[in-house]
Amino acid sequence: MTETVSLPAFPSPLRWLNRPQDWSAEGDALSIVAGAGTDLFSDPGEPNRYANAPALVGRLDGDFTLSARVRLDLLSTYDAAVLLLYADDDRWAKFCLELSPQGRPTIVSVVTRGVSDDCNSVTMDGTDIRLRISRIGTAFAFHVADESGFWNLIRYFALDGDPEVGFLAQSPTGEGCTVRFEDIVYSPKRLSDLRGGE
């Protein structure tokens, strides 16, 4: 029987795709500890497929937004805090605050349809970084906000299947990392303006 996890800030039960080294949840916060060499990526230029990063996902029906403030010590290249859409092993998308090879906290998105793409967007300053996933009909959107409170559109896309939604921690080149998702907020409302910053 699959173990389920309840979070007060998430309206349905969640399940682990991969178990973390450790985790905790309290109120609207979730902490996930990823071990060394953990990742979710299907390299488009090589046969390498990685799917051992700990992730906690659950079902959200209809239009919604799900956001969280993300905090982690970015110690090694590609350490990341991730909001995740997961339909199956071949169809998923992740939205990351990730340490770039240049040593900068960077917003990265990956959409996988058999193989992954990899899109580095903007570098981030400050500690108040929030990520958000929205479903608008058959499409999805990734937004990021900093201290300004303006939600910047990073990606707008479709993903086949009926993906679950959740949280992932990864440390592909490092010895592990602890990711904390704070101020998790779910809303069943439809996002009315992709580019208006709402």
From TrEMBL:
<dbReference type="InterPro" id="IPR013320">
    <property type="entry name" value="ConA-like_dom_sf"/>
</dbReference>
<dbReference type="InterPro" id="IPR009784">
    <property type="entry name" value="DUF1349"/>
</dbReference>
<protein>
    <submittedName>
        <fullName>DUF1349 domain-containing protein</fullName>
    </submittedName>
</protein>
<dbReference type="Pfam" id="PF07081">
    <property type="entry name" value="DUF1349"/>
</dbReference>
